[in-house]
Amino acid sequence: MDTFVQLVINGLMLGGLFAIISVGLTLIFGIIRLVNFAHGELLMVGMYLTWLGTTQLGLHPYVLAPPVVLALFVVGLLIQRFILQPLLDARDAHVQIFATVGLSTALINLALLVFGADLYATPSSGVRDSIALGPYRILVGQLVMFVCGIAVVAALHLFMERSYLGRAIRATAQHRAAAQLMGVDVKRIYMVTFGIGAACVGLAAVLVAPIYPASPTVGTYFVLTAFVVVVLGGMGSLHGAFIGALIIGLVDSLSGFYIAPDLKEVVIFGLFITILLLRPTGLFGLGRGSE
Amino acid sequence: MLTLHDVQAGYGRTTILHGIHVEVRAGEVVTIVGANGAGKTTTLRTVAGLVRPTAGRITFEGEEIGHLPPHEVVARGITLIPEGRQLFPFMSVRDNLRMGAYTPHARDRMRQTMDEVLDLFPRVREKLEQHAGSLSGGEQQMVAIARGMMARPKLLMFDEPSLGLAPIIVSQVFDVVERIVQTGVTVLLVEQNVFRTLSIADRGYVLENGAIVMNDSGAALLRDDHVRRAYLGI
């Protein structure tokens, strides 16, 4: 029983991390209608930035959160402005998706060129210390991930519901032409949306770096899981992504122990295929014709 | 106020408007009548910036606006209430109206405008918290008009506001348009209900196959033989 509870705690904490990565992905999908295959590589860029900041400037990884988040926000804006926006009027909407695949490959190879294939471990400076909670233990880093996950989802929810900009973002997703007629600059909305999605992944990078070493392909593992989360929660749904992230975190943690560590991805992707077969709109998906 | 000078526009390689001249003066109600596919909607979409003119000039209050993207046209004071309502279906009616006041100029006075607009649309006030997508067609049209008013436009363009509505609702829509006209907003109206439209219009243009074939006062067009035969079935 103690083991089970400990695994549940681990799973929920991991879910917090998945939530941060997934909300960015689901936001970009829901608003821009774009599957961002370079999402993992943005995580990778953020992790190298965190490594640089800690080893070259001697800063604590968490102190780097504001600059890394800001840097990724700007990177996201620029990607939308200079790579995706020129393709906005392309005849085939899939061109944009292929562009993100290309961007992903380019970033991986850029990282190989600059850093090589070695693993770069960010100094953990207390992040791996554990807190005792009765018979259970939680790593400081895990707890921070969980708290940040909730905070990010709550902040995004408030932003989307309450602010003028958030309302304009939702309006653009629901009816792009009508949003333009209200005076919304749709290109700017897309830039901001991609920027926010990238900024979320920047925060995730800062939180992951002290626990998991950076490498050119590090993004793949986390973001493939995030894709499962997004599909489970319903593509485009923020609270769906949050609940989905917690569920996948639990599945990851429990199947890694009760089935086999090597097989947990089999379980996760088995679940992925099951969702696609039985409920392709996910838990909170809007279903067909929701434009 | 608004002048279209020899404007050509279309979609891709298809030209819809073959050089049209239209003028709307401040305080007027001007209508464009014509058959389906004549280019009425394209005219309004071109003014709104959704379609870029391939030739000709569009000026508003003396400034060239033909090259501006839609959000900048709205900021200048031109609002289009589009055909088919085009509400934000998963937003409350209140949020739809808030979106109507998105431009900085309108946002500053949103509360006041909201009160004024809701006085004009008492039925909309009762539905404020409902999702726009859950309303009936007539209610949605009222919300679409109210949302357009929220921008505090100088020129309000209506594209087929009565399309697809039951006759009694059509009558209500025209009542609303007349009340809006009385508030002093300049109106450019495209509508399939030619008789009622010409009755309230100061002037009208007849658009056929992308060209203006007649323009005269609303009353004169109502008496015209060609208009009576082609559009009124008399």
Automatic annotation (TrEMBL), chain A:
The chain crosses the membrane at residues 12-35, 65-83, 95-116, 136-160, 189-212, 218-235, 266-286. GO terms for biological process: amino acid transport. One of its GO terms (molecular function) is transmembrane transporter activity. Coiled coil: none annotated. It is a multi-pass membrane protein. It comes from the Bacteria. Keywords: Amino-acid transport, Cell membrane, Membrane, Transmembrane, Transmembrane helix, Transport. GO terms for cellular component: plasma membrane. The keyword GTP-binding does not apply. It holds the Pfam family BPD_transp_2. CDD domains: TM_PBP1_LivH_like (cd06582). Its main location: membrane. InterPro entries: ABC_transp_permease, BCAA_transport_permease. It is found in: Cell membrane. Belongs to the binding-protein-dependent transport system permease family. LivHM subfamily. This is Branched-chain amino acid ABC transporter permease. It comes from Teichococcus oryzae.
UniProtKB/TrEMBL annotation, chain B:
One of its GO terms (biological process) is L-amino acid transport. GO terms for molecular function: ATP binding; ATP hydrolysis activity; branched-chain amino acid transmembrane transporter activity. It comes from the Bacteria. Residues 2-234 form the ABC transporter domain. Pfam families: ABC_tran (PF00005). InterPro entries: AAA+_ATPase, ABC_transporter-like_ATP-bd, ABC_transporter-like_CS, BCAA_Transport_ATP-bd_LivF, P-loop_NTPase. Keywords: Amino-acid transport, ATP-binding, Nucleotide-binding, Transport. SMART domains: AAA. Belongs to the ABC transporter superfamily. PANTHER family: HIGH-AFFINITY BRANCHED-CHAIN AMINO ACID TRANSPORT ATP-BINDING PROTEIN LIVF (PTHR43820:SF4). This is ABC transporter ATP-binding protein. The lineage of its organism: Bacteria, Pseudomonadati, Pseudomonadota, Alphaproteobacteria, Acetobacterales.
